[in-house]
Specification:
Blueprint: E1 15-18, H1 23-34, E2 40-43, H2 49-55, E3 65-67, E4 73-75, H3 77-84, H4 91-113, H5 121-126, H6 131-139, H7 141-152, H8 159-180, H9 191-204, H10 211-215, H11 225-231, H12 235-247
Parallel strand pairs: 1-2
Antiparallel strand pairs: 1-3, 3-4
Bound molecules: glutathione.
């Protein structure tokens, strides 16, 4: 947690700053919802989020970022889950999911989505953001799209390798589930389960809110659609959809 003196939070309840479709942001959002914490969400657009986050004096530019009532900042989904105090964690599994599996899934999906002008990703990224940010996002999209692709190394020519690496991560998670059963740590749904389900959601495609609305309008390019269809029946992704149905509390 960072002290951010001068970062005002006038509403006096936590404010979660997000890039709306981000799976890391969904991890934080879900944890807050699960614990019944009342908060507001400010949805930011890629690019203009940099100014907003820098003005708050955050350590890094990444989201999610939780601005607390006293003006202090809690940045990163992991720290937000610590702050929320959710039991049932497994640091080793969560580390792999957060630092290896989740960035890989993001790189793979954006490699297909950003390079296809009909994918709908621009509108999904800008939906729910302020009118000003959405306008800037639309006007600068040709450049923004390139900056995002470069930042994530999300190149279409890498797709065959990225798809193979995602499959490797799903193999690992299938095996883990076979060993551990319904819950990754302990007998009840907890932090490790929430982490896995939220970070795998972009490939599991649960039709549960808020993920359903946040990803509505995506048209999967031909470079990705057959793989998503093939993966859909894997134990990992069936488990994610089941966990969403059973545990994603309504907003
Ligand atoms: N490990 C971090 C990763 C967060 C992250 O990579 N967020 C991305 C969105 S998926 C982001 O904010 N990217 C824009 C930036 O870093 O400026 C977490 O768990 O919060």
């Amino acid at each position: 947690m960072t002290d951010a003196s001068g970062a005002e939070n006038e509403d006096c309840r936590p404010l979660l700053l997000t890039l709306p479709p981000s799976h890391y942001c969904e991890r934080a959002r879900w944890a807050l919802d699960l614990q019944g914490i009342v908060y507001d969400e400010e949805r930011l657009a890629p690019g203009t989020h940099l100014l907003r986050v820098k003005r708050l004096g955050a350590e890094a530019t990444s989201l999610p970022l939780l601005l607390l009532e006293d003006g202090s900042l809690c940045q990163g989904s992991d720290r937000i889950l610590d702050w929320v105090g959710l039991p049932g964690g497994d640091p080793e599994i969560e580390r792999r999911l957060e630092q290896e599996t989740a960035p890989l899934i993001r790189q793979c999906l954006y490699a297909g989505l950003l390079s296809d002008p009909r994918s709908g990703i621009r509108d999904v990224l800008l939906r729910g953001t302020s009118k000003r940010d959405a306008t800037i996002g639309r006007l600068t999209w040709p450049l923004l799209r390139r900056i995002m692709a470069a930042g994530m190394n999300a190149r279409p020519r890498l797709l065959p390798d990225l798809i193979a690496q995602v499959e490797h991560e799903l193999d690992w998670f299938d095996r883990l589930l076979a060993e551990r059963g319904a819950h990754l740590a302990g007998r009840e749904f907890g932090r490790a389960d929430l982490t896995a389900a939220s970070l795998l959601a972009p490939v599991a495609l649960p039709q549960v809110e808020p993920v359903k609305s946040l990803s509505a309008g995506i048209r999967w390019p031909r470079s990705l659609a057959p793989f998503l269809a093939r993966w859909s029946d894997r134990p990992s992704l069936k488990w994610v959809r089941h966990v969403y149905e059973a545990h994603r509390v309504p907003l």
